[in-house]
Amino acid sequence: MQGQMMTLPLTLASLLEHAERYHGDTEIVSCTLEGPVHRYTYADAHRRARQAASALTRLGARPGSRVGTLAWNGFRHFELYYAISGTGAITHTVNPRLFPEQISWIIGDAADEVVCFDLSFASLVETIAKDCPSVKHWVAMTDRAHMPALQIANLLCYEELLAAESEHFSWPRLDEQSAATLCYTSGTTGNPKGVLYSHRATLLHTLSSSLPDALALSGRDVLAPVVPMFHVNAWGLPYSAPLVGAKLVFPGANLDGESIFKLFEREGVTFSAGVPTVWLSLQQYMRQHCVRLPALQRMVVGGAACPPALMRSFEQEFGIRLQHAWGMTELSPTGTVNTLKASQLPLDEEARFAIGVKQGRPPFGVELKTVDDEGNELPRDGKTAGALMVRGHWVIERYFGLEKSPLVDGWFPTGDVATLDADGFMQITDRAKDVIKSGGEWISSIDLENIAMSHPAVAEAAALGIAHPKWDERPLLVVALKPGQAVSRDEVLAHYPGKVARFCIPDDVVFIEALPHTATGKVSKVLLREHLRDYRWPAPQRPEVAS
Ligand code: ADP
Q1: Same domain for 346 and 471?
Q2: Which of 97, 428, 524 is the pocket-test mutation for ligand 1 (most atoms within 8 Å of CB)?
Q3: Which of 59, 236, 263, 312 is most buried, judging by how many CB atoms fall within 10 Å of its CB?
Q4: For residue 545, what pLDDT is reported?
């Protein structure tokens, strides 16, 4: 027997419709490339999204067509998220920090027909346009007065396109399983691969990731997504904010500590999300200028392991909670978020902190397990590390344009190595390719990095497994010091005994000016390895460390 309730498709435009109807006067604030701060409301955003949808339809966008964006976090990008997907076309957010050849490759692979770009990427567009034959229209996301003078034929002005349209576009009724957005993995190994999210998966992700034990978002929040909208849909925040009716604050192109601080202070931001490097630069600014952000309660940190020292510092010095979360492009991206359970609240501060540094537990809709090399499930004892597998409502089934599914017995292999505990908390010990294999033992590069970063002189650190004639690999630590700090190799290494087993202590330390980062803000071990191509272990080596 069938249930007898209404069936309304779970589609993305319904989020903005809801926000207009029930939070129509709530503000959306954007730092713009043209200069002034832009302010309008959810009602304005919905009206302009309908005009943009009408304009895109006139340009030829049809259900299933791909429309690319090369843009920072701002109101026009937000409108396009809804305008493109709302017509049934696919919002393809392209990461503008990639190399031009990678960008044109991705646009070609997706066969984008229209690409909308922010002014900062005008010269990039001029460079790549000839290599993007699928693109029929390039739309500069600005007004006539700021239009760039580009040597490309098919250039349009976003504000002019909107001005020519009425706001009476009505969203078509779409199949909730149809594709809504497309995002490419950063392709640290091989070509990037497209992940094609459906309306349904994204809507379920939005609902579940906003719950109190996940991101805990509400209409009383002032929400600033610092994580870029070209990085897994800014972790879903442009959808969660209209769901709950939170005020939205978009930082635009300036993501340095000072700009973030001033924006958060002025707008009374209560919640934000970003990668650890962003919070490191905010921390440095707040320390240097002895300033605080009294309205800011929580910042979600993910994309790479958050150094426990950074969490502790924000909590103790500034009263701001850094909430650890883990995810991937293939997971829309939320896999886990760290929130204590009722049974853990009575624990003392240190015990709670030890749980808080883990990557967290899955919200409803995600299941996790760890397996050994033969695929056997490992115990959930908080100690045994294995390959992390995931399945759920917003987990990839297959990559865009590729026949072969990556799934193993219905589970997606994440490429991460992790432990799971009886309470459901997951802790990443490494990315499978970054584990340091020494004398048959596995050494967690993340542990070594966290210890280095708890040293007061160290700004950032990375641990790499370097080939070793006897032990297969031994850990090498690469360190970037804070400005004005001087510390020796031995002083850094003296920080390790008692914190990890003796065989895990790095054999050597290399100091460099700054660590290289990937287009998604993570330390790039590929570039580091290139940088250290000629590195040789010092002789004589530390005796028999791995015994
Ligand atoms: P890419 O795989 O191309 O780097 P993603 O942005 O999808 O692109 O990165 C997902 C990966 O980032 C995860 O598989 C994991 O290795 C890492 N990651 C994400 N969040 C965390 C976290 N909180 N702690 C440790 N690693 C993380």
Answers
A1: no
A2: 428
A3: 236
A4: 45
User: Annotated catalytic sites, by residue?
Assistant: 185, 330, 437, 442
* Residue indicated by tokens 């713009």: 32
Q: Quick one: 30 and 145 in the same domain?
A: yes
Q: What is the pLDDT of residue 539?
A: 78
Residues with CB under 6 A from ligand 1: 185-186, 188, 302-305, 324-329, 359, 414-416, 428, 431, 520
Assigned domain for 315 exists: yes
Query: Which CATH number goes with the domain that contains 447?
Result: 3.30.300.30
Q: How far apart are CA 373 and CA 323, in angstroms?
A: 31
Neighbouring-strand partners of residue 194: 184
User: Is 547 a member of any domain?
Assistant: no
By residue range, what is the domain housing residue 513? 436-531
Domain harbouring 136, CATH code: 3.40.50.12780
Q: Which two tokens stand for residue 6?
A: 């209404």
pTM of the model: 0.90
Stated length of the chain: 547
Q: Which residue CA neighbors atom 24 of ligand 1 most closely? A: 305
Distance separating alpha carbons of residues 120 and 292, to the nearest angstrom: 31
Q: Which atom of ligand 1 is nearest to the CA of 359?
A: 23
Nearest CA to ligand 1 atom 19: 303
Alpha-carbon dihedral 515, 445, 301, 317, rounded to 10 degrees: -80
Taking the C-alpha atoms of residue 396 and residue 415, their distance in angstroms, rounded to an integer, is 14
DSSP state string for 89-108: -EEEE--TTS-HHHHHHHHH
With H, G, I as helix, E, B as strand and everything else as coil, classify residue 425: coil
pLDDT tens for residues 250-297? 999 999 999 999 999 999 999 999 999 899 999 999 999 999 999 999
Question: Which residue out of 191, 231, 299, 416 has the highest number of ligand 1 atoms within 8 Å of its CB and is therefore the one to mutate?
Answer: 416
Nearest in space to 423 (alpha carbons), one of 492, 488, 489, 368: 368
Q: What is the pLDDT of residues 105-134, one digit of tens each?
A: 999 999 999 999 999 999 999 999 999 999
**pLDDT tens profile 174-221:** 999 999 999 999 755 567 899 999 999 999 999 999 999 999 999 999
Are 86 and 211 members of one domain? yes
